[in-house]
Amino acid sequence: MERFLLRHQEHIAGVLSGFDRVLFRGTLRSISHIEGMRVFLAAHRVLLKDFGVFVDKHSNHIKEHAQSYAREHGRPYQYVISPSASKEEIAKKIMQRDEISEGLICVLSCVEPCQSYAIRKDRDAKKLKLIPATRKCLHLYFYFIDREFGFMHVRLQSWFPFPIQVCINGREWLAKEMEKAGVSYERHSNCFIDIGDMKKAQEMADATLKRNWPKLLNQFSQILNPIVEELDIRDYYWTIRQAEYATDVIFKDADYFKELYPRLIHHAIEQFRSEDVMRFLGRRSDGRFGGEVNSNIRKRNEGVRIRHWVEENSIKMYDKQGYVLRIETTINNPRRFKVYRKAFRKGQETKAWIPMRKGVADIYRRVEISRKANARYLEALSVVGEKEPAHQYLDPVCKPVSKHNRRYRGLRLITPDDAKLFQALLHGEFLIHGFRNADIRALLFHKPNSDKEKRYLMAKTSRLICLLRVHKLIRKVPKSQRYQITAKGHRVMSVSLMFRKSNLSLLEKAA
């Protein structure tokens, strides 16, 4: 990222990294699985034949509580007929109509699909049984302008097991914090185009990691869901269902950014094999994925946006308000990444790299991964507008090198084979968490017809990876089988591909 900022430093006002949209999900774990629900019903002496009456009673209680809560605050309770209708737009229209600046805006209700339970007859055993079921029930949306978080909402399912979601916007929260601290700013839509004290704003954005999120989020559940206290259920267990972490590069000059952004888009299209929106839906060889990569194109009124999907997680680039270049990483499935924390190995407590949890306890690691992904994306774009002579970093990699008494050939930068390798490595999804031998092998070679051929292609790919490592174009991720492209690698591979794709007529004109 530093190279990108250095290249455009005269035109950049500052850089701000922080959460954009964060969706927290609260789960009552004791009743969120079938056995726990059976125990819960037994503890409350509820027979299965009375299950419907029991849950209807408490579902109605939640609905009545929401209506009462709206009346107490003098705000509307409105039923939304279509589940596809934008509740946020409805809430914002009410907010503007009634000029709400703080507190509850409205309570919206809508029948939507949910995961719950049902009673079925077991004909063989001649008795009733409790089973998990997909059904429809009333969901309640509470929209607020919170003193701390600004415009936000809480979504509560009115049917067992009562999951709850709290959605906040990091930029809304930061605006509130800067107002309290007296930091001036200019904000358009969901981004800042000018901040009086950028360093202090970044410190405030980083302060989200130190919050006691379970305690904070439980305050919403205690106010809006009376069933938890009434039935003596433990507090919610909070996870992050979706988190968008954005790095905003704020430009001083809109004209400069307007001229630069199409070049960044063109580079991403050429090097990451994407157009307006890029989606990579790679499938693994274990059946979930099979190495296939697809791309989709979507036209947007706001401008050109590029998104790279790798499994459930994504990274995207788009412009905001003509001044801001936003790089945003969205993590939907954190288990694709690792966190170094306490774990049990052979009955003993130790520290190890294990899959990252959805729980809020690993929020710091989520931020670390997202921030690095954004930085790598900007680093990959730093070659756009390169003013240094290309030979300064192309010539050295064309020469043979020796390591551990072994000689490695120089790279053949514009030959079809090496160009194909570079193009594979620069796939957008590899910017998020690197690539493996199998990932590159699937892009370079055909599907093997035998185990012998598979071993041959694995060995051939390993030799290519080793060649790139000795030339320092890639590096190995510690304690993993993944590799990442270095800053040098981005420059060398991107420029060599641009040379290969250059129009000869343009070169003749330049001569």
Domain count? 3
Structural Rg: 27 Å
The average pLDDT score comes to: 85
Number of beta strands:
18
Taking pLDDT < 50 over at least 5 consecutive residues as the criterion, the unreliable ranges are 273-299, 504-511
Strand content: 25-35%
Query: How many individual helices?
Result: 17
Strand order of the largest sheet: 2-3-4-5-6-1-9-12-11-10
The oligomeric status of these chains comes to single chain
What general outline do the C-alpha atoms trace? Answer: globular
Distance between the first and last residues' Cα: 33 Å
Explained architecture:
By secondary structure, the chain is α+β, with helices and mostly antiparallel strands. It folds into 3 domains: 1-24 and 166-385, no CATH class; 29-162, no CATH class; 391-510, Orthogonal Bundle (Arc Repressor Mutant, subunit A). It is built from 17 helices and 18 strands. It has helices at 2-7, 34-43, 51-72, 87-98, 170-181, 198-206, 213-224, 227-230, 254-272, 363-381, 391-394, 416-425, 430-433, 437-444, 451-470, 487-501, 504-510, and strands at residues 12-27, 77-79, 103-122, 127-146, 150-157, 164-169, 185-188, 191-195, 237-251, 305-310, 313-320, 324-331, 338-345, 348-355, 401-403, 406-408, 474-476, 483-485. A 10-stranded mixed beta sheet has the order 2-3-4-5-6-1-9-12-11-10, sandwiched between helices. The protein has a two-stranded antiparallel ribbon with strand order 7-8. A two-stranded antiparallel ribbon has the order 13-14. Helix 10 packs parallel to helix 16 (487-501) and helix 14 crosses helix 15 (451-470). The longest helix is centred in the N-terminal third of the chain and has 22 residues, at 51-72. It is globular. The relative contact order is 0.10. Mean pLDDT is 85; it is low at 273-299 and 504-511.
